[in-house]
Structure formats: structure tokens, C-alpha cells
Design goal:
Layout lengths: L1 H19 L28 H9 L4 E4 L1 H8 L4 E6 L4 H16 L4 E5 L8 H15 L5 E4 L3 H7 L9 E5 L5 E6 L4 H10 L2
Parallel strand pairs: 1-4, 2-3, 3-4
Antiparallel strand pairs: 2-5, 5-6
Helix pairs in contact: 2-5, 4-7
Amino acid sequence: MLRKFGQQVVQRISSLVARHELFERQGERPVQPPLSPGAWSSGDGNESDADAAEDDTDDDRVETADADALAGILSGGAMIVNHWATWCESCMAEKAAVRRLAERSDWPMVGISWDAFEDGDVVRSLGEVYNFVKTENIDWPQYVVDGHPDDFFNAFEITEQQIPQTWLVGPDGAILHRLHGMVDDGQIENLLERMK
């Protein structure tokens, strides 16, 4: 009876794997070029995946930040904070307007990427955000949320848990205004007026 039950379980799992194609088939993976000699780890075991991803980017415009680190960043003086993600269509649609806002404002801009929100893969998200920032030539710092989203929602009293969002943060680190939704040309004027 146990043997029959075991065979049924194996058959059921096999059919699920086949139906959902959980494993790659022979020959499906494209041929990858060999790694360059400098790409190998030093072998000391002290480098984490996140450290490796940050080293690969070789750019201080993209970093990770947990809720405490972000609180420290926001306490650094008046700034504009744009919350976005590469997978967010509205965020991509507003990027030109966000760039115009950054160019016209006397306040520095900071980006908060929620790319790791859905799957928690911070290493992959760092790479995606870095590639986007490099391709789009975005010159303001970007911080990829690293930690449980609830920590951020609670720490910054975020009630609208959707992106895009743009905040105006005062010199004392207090959030003066929250724009929920896309930045457009009309919103740019409104935000610039609020900064005076």
C-alpha cells in the first residue's frame, strides 16, 4: 500500500513538473561566453552575492537601502524622492517628466526602486536598476529597497502602497508632500511651487 502511494506521488509530481516546465530541457539554455579572468571570486568566501552585484556595477549611483538607511538618507536635507520600479509601466511613462523635474529643481533628486518588492531578489534587482540607470543616463542616486516592504510602509507611514510616488522632503527630513501617481507637466509646476 505504501509503495503504491509512493508511486502515485511520484507520478503526480512528474506530471506537475512536465506541465509547468519547472526544469529546463537539454539544449534550452543559450551558450554563454566564458568568464573573463577578472570575473572569478578571490575564493576567500567573504564576498556576498549583494557585494558581488555592487562590485559589478562599479557605480555609486545604485545601492541597496533598508528602512533605517533610507531614514538616514532622507534626513540629509531637502530633496525630491521618486519611488519607482523597472517593471512599473506608469513609472517608465513618467521618467521623462521626472527628469524635467530634476533638471528644473534646486533640490536634489533621489530614486527609490521597488524592483525587489515582488520576488525579494535584491541581487537581480540591483543589476536591473543599474542597467536602466546606465542606459537612460540617470545621474541622481538610486536606492533599491532591501528588506520587508512592511518595514518601509510603517517607518514612513505609507498608506498608498502603489508606485509611482514622488515626495518632497524638507530640510529636517519630514515628508512635506506626497504625490501619488505619475508626475506630469502640470504636477511639475505644482511641485516646484511647493518647494519655494
